[in-house]
């Protein structure tokens, strides 16, 4: 089975789509796919489909949706009805049937991927490898593996699915994980000295996430390293405006320290500040005075 969640929902068995078009079974399949190879209790499935309370006959309707999904699975397993001795074959060469792929177990249902692919699992494996590389100081490998994780995303998770409370929580978790990976990928790129190349992408990201302090800080760093101190100050100003609109918030102490450093660099008329180090904007200001100390804090 091939499961794709990081964008529009796509579930394929035996190379054939088993993703229904109707809203309720699509939502049901999405939740089963979110917990693929694990049993999802019937109560959880019902809470997802009917968050305001299950109506009378909800279990019967849920079972009807399950039967509909199994019908799609059965068709996919055989790539269409195949007559063998006058009887339709309902399992594939590995012995997988609709009832084993979507199995009733322990008061719930389990979607069995049969060892297939799942883009969330691939994302988490690549992200984990990237984080470990960052911790080891291997920036090229970190940039590569974190980039591979981000490349798996095709759009918003579960796009096109009517999400209930469980899927909304899972969507928020995935989006937060994506931002974390993005943050570390940008940090690796800046650490490799790719500040000029990162400016256009960070401009788009900062506009897309107008109150994300980490991305704005990295954008400021990339601009400063590219000799664009005035643009870095403008990026800070736009962040301040966004934070004010978002509940009257102020930038964090780290962003304010970075802002002061940018002002110092601009007023001193320093050229671009090259560096190969990561974690630039998260570092404290230097204890020593003068341009040497300031430069040390920026590299």
Q: What is this structure's SSE topology?
A:
Layout: E1 2-4, E2 10-13, E3 16-17, H1 23-34, E4 39-41, H2 42-49, H3 58-78, E5 83-84, E6 87-88, H4 98-101, E7 102-105, E8 108-111, E9 117-118, H5 119-136, H6 139-151, H7 165-191, H8 195-208, H9 213-225, H10 229-245, H11 253-268, H12 291-297
Parallel strand pairs: 1-9
Antiparallel strand pairs: 1-2, 2-3, 4-8, 5-6, 7-8
Note down, in words, how this protein is organized:
This protein is an alpha+beta fold and 299 residues long. Helix content is 57%, strand content 9%. It has 12 helices and 9 strands. Strands 3-2-1-9 form a 4-stranded mixed sheet. A 3-stranded antiparallel sheet has the order 4-8-7. A two-stranded antiparallel ribbon has the order 5-6. Helix 1 (23-34) crosses helix 3 (58-78). The longest helix has 27 residues, at 165-191. The chain is elongated and about 75 Å long. The protein starts with a strand and ends with a helix.
């Amino acid at each position: 089975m091939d499961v794709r969640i990081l964008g529009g929902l796509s579930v394929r068995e035996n190379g054939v789509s088993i993703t229904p078009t109707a809203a309720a079974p699509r939502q049901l399949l999405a939740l089963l796919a979110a917990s693929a190879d694990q049993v999802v209790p019937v109560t959880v499935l019902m809470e997802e489909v009917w968050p305001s309370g299950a109506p009378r006959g909800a279990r019967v309707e849920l079972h009807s949706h399950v039967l509909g999904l199994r019908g799609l699975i059965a068709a996919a397993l055989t790539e269409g009805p195949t007559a063998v001795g006058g009887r339709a074959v309902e399992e594939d060469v590995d012995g997988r049937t609709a009832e084993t792929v979507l199995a009733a177990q322990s008061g719930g249902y389990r979607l069995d991927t049969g060892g297939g692919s799942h883009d969330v699992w691939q994302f988490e494996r690549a992200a984990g490898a990237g984080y470990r590389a960052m911790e080891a100081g291997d920036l090229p490998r970190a940039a590569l593996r974190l980039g591979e994780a981000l490349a798996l995303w095709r759009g918003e998770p579960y796009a096109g699915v009517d999400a209930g409370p469980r899927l909304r929580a899972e969507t928020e978790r995935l989006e937060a994980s994506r931002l974390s990976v993005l943050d570390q990928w940008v940090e690796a790129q800046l650490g490799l000295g790719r500040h000029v190349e990162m400016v256009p992408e960070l401009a788009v990201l900062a506009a897309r996430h107008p109150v994300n302090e980490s991305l704005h800080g990295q954008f400021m760093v990339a601009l400063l390293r590219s000799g664009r101190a005035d643009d870095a100050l403008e990026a800070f100003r736009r962040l301040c405006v966004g934070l004010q609109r978002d509940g009257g918030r102020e930038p964090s102490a780290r962003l304010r320290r970075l802002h002061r450093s940018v002002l110092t660099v601009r007023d001193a008329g320093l050229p671009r500040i090259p560096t190969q180090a990561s974690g630039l904007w998260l570092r404290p200001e230097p204890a020593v005075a003068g341009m040497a100390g300031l430069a040390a804090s920026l590299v």
